[in-house]
Amino acid sequence: xxxREFLTGLTAGAALLPTLSSAKGLPQMVRYPDTxxxxxxxxxxxxxxxxxxxxxxxxxxxxxxxxxxxxxxxxLWSDIxxxxxxxxxxxxxxxxxxxxxxxxxxxxxxxxxxxLISCESRRVTRTEYDGTIRVLADKYEGKPFNACNDIVCHPxxxxxxxxxxxxxxxxxxxxxxxxxxxxxxxxxxPKTGKIQLIATDLxxxxxxxxxxxxxxxxxxxxxxxxxxxxxxxxxxxKVKGPxxxxxxxxxxxxxxxxxxxxxxxxxxxxxxxxxDGVDILxxxxxxxxxxxxxxxxxxxxxxxxxxxxxxxxxSQSLYSVYVNAQGAELx
Length: 331
Prior knowledge:
This protein has helices at residues 3-21, 42-45; strands at residues 37-39, 54-58, 63-69, 74-79, 84-89, 95-99, 105-110, 116-120, 123-127, 133-137, 139-140, 143-144, 151-153, 159-163, 184-188, 195-199, 205-210, 216-221, 227-234, 238-247, 256-258, 264-268, 277-281, 287-292, 299-303, 309-314, 317-322. By secondary structure, it is mainly beta. The protein folds into two domains: 1-30; 34-322, 6 Propeller (Neuraminidase).
């Protein structure tokens, strides 16, 4: 082949690449590193790998509450308006319905025995190994909860959860009802059913997580303050605070999880293009990174074989991105 013919062939082949990458059924190519992962501070640069932001599934109405099951290599999450819990398989990428109806389930976690714990509208439930659902709590001081939202498990087995009441504020995510309690944070003993009121000083306590050493409790307030607040955890059963760690205005954070270095990965949105996605904060509250998404972000968790895959629910879709960080929660 002559040199001119060889160069002509290269040019023709290159011209086909954009067509091939955007052809029906093929994913759009992403140049590494993904420009949707933004480094704001050198402390975050070490957390950025070459992986692209992946959209794993779409078509939900409001996706929430992802929780990773490493023993089965799958992720569960909620679609609250559709009254479903969905299941994504890491092995083959398929999505199926795990439970429907789901009683407008919102947030999830796993207990120390690996069982699914869920905030089902006005109650907290546990899915037993045989698939039966056990109600762990549905009342405080004889009155029903408003609408339980997000939940985490402490190493001592107690479940800490928030009750901002969103599920009773309209028909879209539940049914309208009267608020029976102030918006609160609770601590539940799943063995005895004892419920302890932890705090009532946030307007809309929403997502929550512990620091890696469990000495701090982080809670996102989705009320007018729209901030991330921190409490000191005393003897594993009380808190002192809160202290505002970060202000998300004009956006609004929803949920939070910690990596093993104590950095805080917070969902964000509600302020238009450029604000949607995940804000990464240093333990001091300083913004160090951002994962940009085209939809308002609701919740997130770490998973995958190495606990370095961040799963993100955002409005109608499920996303993931591999990062050079590991989730602090072992389950």
